[in-house]
Design a protein that fits this description.
By secondary structure, the chain is α/β, with parallel strands linked by helices. It is built from 9 helices and 9 strands.
């Protein structure tokens, strides 16, 4: 395995410190030898305790991005992190999960043959107890491009990819209401790059009452919103395809 830098991109928003500490410990215990952590705090009213990073990230370096004066939401936050990163590989990270110690090593090994990987997760509750042994089984995921336009099935915190896919990923579509960063990157990877979907459960994905995203389990969206969301994704994918053809 090569030892090129892997950038872990962590967006935080008023995190539960107990959950964040457990996540940071799991990052610090990764077996992959060349990591850098980038952190962006998107909560304007209550900033995260930066001492936690100094205390719990001791095996590699980290950088806290400058604060913004307005909330970017999680898609804007991850776009800012992606733009700042400079490693050969990128992995998204949420503030309240727990990574298996081989998560990064496993993904980078797979990325020797692919440009993008997404893996499965064990679902845990607020107390850290496993409630479901597979996110895939609970979500009932589709593996195809069309299937994921119909119903997106994967978690951004389970994704890792080579830097080269940013050529098509950036900039993120402007209307963040109709496009999430993980959905967009998955669809770009499926459309233009060599991707793989792994059944390995590489994180413990925490579901609790204050999650900033629904993990795909929310059923509250209206039919009109669902149609507009999918049309917006397809429109932006076609735009990237047209740009590709004119190069």
């Amino acid at each position: 395995m090569n030892n090129k830098q892997v950038d872990i991109l962590l967006s935080v928003y008023n995190p539960n410190e107990e959950y964040l500490i457990k996540q940071l410990i799991s990052l610090n215990n990764q077996t992959y030898p060349n990591l850098k952590l980038y952190i962006f705090d998107d909560c304007i009213k209550k900033r995260c305790n930066l001492d936690l990073f100094e205390k719990y990230i001791t095996n590699f370096s980290y950088e806290v991005l400058p604060y913004c004066e307005e909330n970017l939401n999680y898609m804007g936050a991850f776009e800012k992190l992606v733009q700042r990163s400079d490693g050969e590989y990128i992995a998204f990270c949420d503030q309240d999960d727990i990574w298996m110690e081989n998560k990064v090593s496993y993904c980078i090994n797979e990325l020797q043959s692919y440009d993008f990987i997404v893996s499965d997760a064990v679902i845990i509750n607020s107390d850290g107890q496993a409630t479901k042994d597979s996110f895939y089984k609970e979500r009932i995921v589709y593996k195809s491009l069309i299937g994921n336009i119909y119903k997106f099935g994967y978690l951004g915190c389970c994704m890792a990819f080579k830097r080269n896919i940013l050529e098509k990923v950036l900039p993120f579509p402007h209307n963040h209401q109709y496009c999430t960063h993980d959905n967009w990157i998955f669809l770009i990877a499926k459309s233009f790059y060599k991707s793989t979907i792994s059944n390995e459960q590489l994180i413990k994905y925490r579901r609790h009452s204050t999650n900033s995203s629904t993990g795909g389990f929310s059923k509250s969206s209206t039919l009109s919103f669902k149609i507009a969301y999918r049309l917006y994704l397809v429109y932006n994918l076609v735009q990237r395809l047209l740009i590709q053809k004119h190069k």
